[in-house]
């Protein structure tokens, strides 16, 4: 998901769940900050204050430009560790541990440069694909506490990012894997009652790795081009789908290798984002209520919203716009009397830098977010280990 849902949508969900305005702002800012806190945002003073190396929650495009220019056949453990720590823990939460989604795809493939064969390690890795309503999402929400004296708002916001992303990133994995993340031969959109081919443009190497602007009106979308190695960087997350999974209004289908039994042409995955995003929003409200009231969170449960509020939210989600931020903020203004200030990614770090002493710095949103990021990562590692899995 993008800033419209992560910042404005999360603020609205927190207000509906009963959080005060000031609390909801911190929760929403944290949720969006997960998409900002790459290595360049991590202050060198943090390591000493935290007592250990900080954990970036995302990677910036320019961090892997080198991997487009010199494709890697065999990643080193430390390279994969860097990728998986950011992408799997914070954006593509592993959620198929019990094999809820069985592997139904190709077992071998004759490629352009080399052949591919499914092995036991890849089958096990398939259980780390992102999915909604997983035991992992249940574990992290139930690990999130709230009380008035120590509200833990940064962790709450961070985890709302992770929960929300399970609805957009379902079926993808946060590591480079062609057999899971490739888009397949065609991507279609359900529009005005029929399935239409998208104008799905592959980027030229000169523009990599930046994705160009998509256009919902002409239905022009951009994605990363295929690479000649099965673990190429374009096969990380949804690079090969461009931004499609993150658009709330899009109802689309595609043919990844993991459901295809004949070179990517037989089976399809359908993703109805307007419906799924509404479920994601109501699950977020439910999760926030559980956290706020200290009651257990269970999967497949959703908050009941007032019918007119739900309809207004669905109308925003349905808008064919790549960024619905203004529409969410207008709705916030309509429901709560005033809009919220637009997100400013440098605000938190600015206040941290301006704080004179270590004690002051440790009270800042910036420090508390980074502390939450480490604790969140450790929580997932412990949970996965208890189930017989580990990230690199
Ligand atoms: Zn994300
Ligand atoms: Zn995404």
Automatic annotation (TrEMBL):
Name of one Pfam family that matches: DUF6765
Top-rank taxon, per record: Bacteria
Record protein name field: Uncharacterized protein
Species annotation: Clostridium aciditolerans
